[in-house]
Design goal:
Blueprint (H helix, E strand, L loop, with lengths): L1 H6 L2 E2 L7 E7 L4 H15 L3 E7 L6 H12 L6 E3 L3 H8 L7 H6 L2 H4 L2 H6 L1 E2 L2 E2 L2 E7 L2 E5 H6 L8 H13 L3 E3 L5 H14 L2 H9 L9 H12 L13 H10 L2 E6 L2 H8 L8 E5 L7 E10 L7 H11 L2 H11 L15 H10 L6 E3 L9 H16 L5 H18 L1
Parallel strand pairs: 2-3, 2-4, 9-10, 12-13
Antiparallel strand pairs: 1-3, 4-12, 5-6, 7-12, 8-10, 8-11
Helix pairs in contact: 2-16, 10-11, 10-12, 10-18, 18-19
């Protein structure tokens, strides 16, 4: 993994005497690369170089391994993409730079959406610079395919089944889906949310062991397995961007994915509300299942602090917020974003997220809802169930419940 990281390194052009920051992240697709390049360019204009250290790994698993190994080798980068609960874990170890001075100077408390502000704080201090908020429970669909066949955008899973059957008879894959573990569990968490936000919070936020015997969890698991018949054969382990290509080209009609998929569709030349549309994943219209993109500054090199603080301040600048999120597919973290630069999907996402805590649901898969150890164990169990049709639903429910109980006992 370290070799992959080093092989991907590249530097932005800055004066020879300028400070350079090595930034470890997992943004690899064309639109993600474009968003990263934009931030790097703006940082270079402030006489700070961006030395790119990209680890190609789904949902950041590989990047986390590389970062831990480099910390142990005393070769840590100055900046790392850390999301959700991982920020707290690294802050507890006193490995992250406190950004309190930058946050106070930039008036972050007043600028940031409250849920975002709480994500980057631990024990009264700020430990990350937020870039954008992604909505995970998004159904992307090829508008022209659905219009040609006279099909509606499904709002429930029952409606999805009806639409999927007609698409399949027309020779079109209804749902683009990879068998990659994090992608399978991303679909699954939207199905759990469709069964009730109380169930979702009980399972993944409160880790209530009783929730794991709830019949609604069985319904979500069975739906995950049943939906395989709409995914085309064979279901391969592919990168999420490959599924986006299938939707863009009309080989597949729909895809449930975080709205980074929107950035990739736009990068391929498609237009929102013309070539493709975005809606809530079936049964989840009232909720914003979210992830926050953040950059944390490693506190291992005091000489880099001034440059690290420049990057943190830059991330919250109105221009970067508007331009980065427009490219990336996400929404700004600001209470007063540049609405004129946001498309219809982004405005709807921001409005729902800004409506309050009742609508905001932290993603399990993307490390917003629970501890990373529990997250990894749940992803493994859900993926195992998805691949092996012989596993009884009750067995998976028991195993998931054991994960929750183990965590509570050892916390």
């Amino acid at each position: 993994m370290a070799a992959l990281c080093l092989a991907a390194c590249a530097c932005t052009a800055v004066p020879a005497r300028a400070q350079t920051l090595q930034v470890l992240h997992w943004w690899k697709s064309a639109s993600e690369r474009k968003a990263v390049d934009l931030v790097a360019q703006r940082l270079g204009e402030q006489q700070v170089g961006w030395h790119d250290s990209m680890v190609p790994s789904g949902s950041g698993v590989g990047a986390g391994i590389v970062l831990r190994s480099r910390m142990l080798a005393k070769d840590a980068p100055e900046v790392a993409q850390l999301n959700g609960s991982v920020i707290r874990d690294w802050a507890r170890l006193h490995l992250l730079l406190e950004l309190d001075t930058v946050a106070a100077a930039g008036n972050w408390k007043q600028l940031l959406l409250p849920a975002v502000a709480s994500t980057i704080e631990y024990d009264g201090h700020v430990y990350a610079a937020p870039l954008g908020v992604h909505r995970i429970n998004t159904l992307f669909y090829n508008r022209k395919v659905l219009q040609r066949l006279g099909l509606p955008v499904p709002a429930t899973w029952s409606e999805f089944e009806q639409v999927a059957a007609k698409l399949q008879r027309a020779g079109i894959v209804p749902l683009a889906q990879s068998s990659e573990p994090w992608q399978v569990t991303t679909l699954f968490e939207t199905m759990v949310l469709a069964e009730g936000v109380d169930l979702y919070r009980g399972l993944f936020q409160r880790r209530d062991t009783a929730a794991y015997s709830d019949p609604r969890l069985a319904t979500a698991l069975l739906r995950l397995r049943a939906t395989k018949r709409w995914m085309g054969r064979p279901i391969q382990e592919r990168k999420w961007a490959d599924g986006v290509v299938d939707v863009a080209d009309g080989r597949a009609a729909m895809m449930v994915m975080g709205d980074w998929a929107k950035g990739e569709l736009i990068e391929r030349g498609l237009a929102v509300d013309v070539d493709f549309g975005c809606a809530a994943a079936p049964g989840t219209a009232r909720y914003h299942l979210y992830n926050v993109d953040t950059l944390s500054m490693l506190g291992t090199r005091p000489a880099a602090r001034a440059a690290q603080e420049k990057l943190a301040a830059l991330a919250l600048s109105p221009a970067v917020q508007a331009d980065y999120n427009r490219i990336k597919g996400s929404i700004p973290v600001l209470r007063q974003p540049a609405f004129a630069k946001m498309d219809a999907c982004a405005r709807a996402s921001w409005t729902l997220f800004n409506s309050g805590a009742a609508a905001q649901v932290p993603s399990l898969v993307h490390r917003m809802a629970t501890d990373e150890m529990v997250r990894d164990a749940i992803v493994t169990e859900v993926h195992r169930f998805f691949l092996d049709d012989s596993i009884p639903v009750a067995d998976t429910q028991r195993r998931l419940g054991t994960i929750a109980r183990t965590f509570i006992k050892t916390k």
